[in-house]
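User: We ran a pulldown and think these components assemble together. Before we commit to crystallization trials, I'd like a predicted model of the whole complex to look at. Sequences follow.
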Amino acid sequence: MRFKGLIACLFCVISVVGQQKPKQIVIAASTVFDGKGGVVHNTRIVIEGSKIVRIDPKAGPVDYDLRGLTVLPGWIDSHVHITWIFGPDGKNAGGGDNSKFAADAAAANARATLMAGFTTVQSVGSLADLLLRDAIAKGTLTGPRILTSAEPLMGRGDQTGTPDEIRAFVRKQKEAGADLIKIFAAGSVRRPQMLLSQEQLNAACDEARKLGLRSLVHAYKDAVDAAARAGCTQIEHGTLASDDDLKLLVQKGVWLDPQAGLVMENYLLNKDKFVGTPGFPEEAFQVIKEIIPSYHDFLKQALKVPGLKIVFGSDALAGSHGRNAEEFIDRVRDCGVDPMAAMVSANSLAAEALRMSDQIGSIAPGLEADVIALDGDPLKDITAVRRVVFVMKGGVVYSNKKAQKTL
Ligand SMILES: [Zn+2]
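Assistant: Here's a predicted model for the assembly, 407 residues in total across the polymer chains.
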């Protein structure tokens, strides 16, 4: 019947009109790093909701004109301590406490980190991370996407517990909401002795694996080999490991997250705030100055090992939140890391290490719209990483210092 058909058709039109097309955001760019080492020129990134939907040079109208800047995926920092703060007296207060002051200071750390171009961080870790992570995910606070280990497993020799007790500790972190497990298997670069036996390490890493969690192990020297044998996912720091240890990481597919300077430079820069607080006697600062070259040498050594997956982690803590990108400069300037490799280590490679390649780390359709822009070309001048002038996370613009609103 014609009449019926007409009504059906009208209904069709109304329902199509009623279905609002999701709002698109179009970014125009002259230089885009895709996060995997590729560069695309003169194109446009089209975003719907929180996701990139296509790369299309003809898309329009343009909402943000980022031409003349370097556009790339939001950086991922694989190793931060997001709740580590200076206390009300201005002194190092470690991971903070349950006070309002500590919560506010941690929120400020998160905001500074996002504004510096880091749209995802892995905090390793503190129980206080959980609240901050969830508040940011809900949109109550501004900050990067946070993954956290919750409470780390601190190696204390036999006192750490039996393998069964260690397994229970790992399960407890998972129940608390941990995204990964952090394990301290060695002391410091000065005292690199192992703090966990092979058996204890095996239990920790195996339990994490069974729960589907990654295990990140703070390790120096012999602990690097032991952690790799235990089946851990990633080595933090790693200094004093031998070439054979590093080859074992390649063989076992273990990631390496070395540091090239920021963490040490930050202790020296903020000496007045650290000195006299636990772990930071006056004499520690001379030692810190002296060990910086050993970190540079270690990264240079690691770069020579074919197939070793080196990821970006700044170890940002009180004083360096929001300055995470200084670690790029150290890696490139002091260790000879190729600038594009440095960028990729905080983009697609870091996403892979986080097992989040299908969500973040590249500028590609289907991925979260985490997009940043630098005023300058980091391939020519790595200090451009200090000049983050545009930050979008999940399709929301948080900082826009240079872009014109429309063409
Ligand atoms: Zn750390």
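The radius of gyration is 23 Å. That may be worth checking against your pulldown data before setting up trials.

User: Thanks, that helps.
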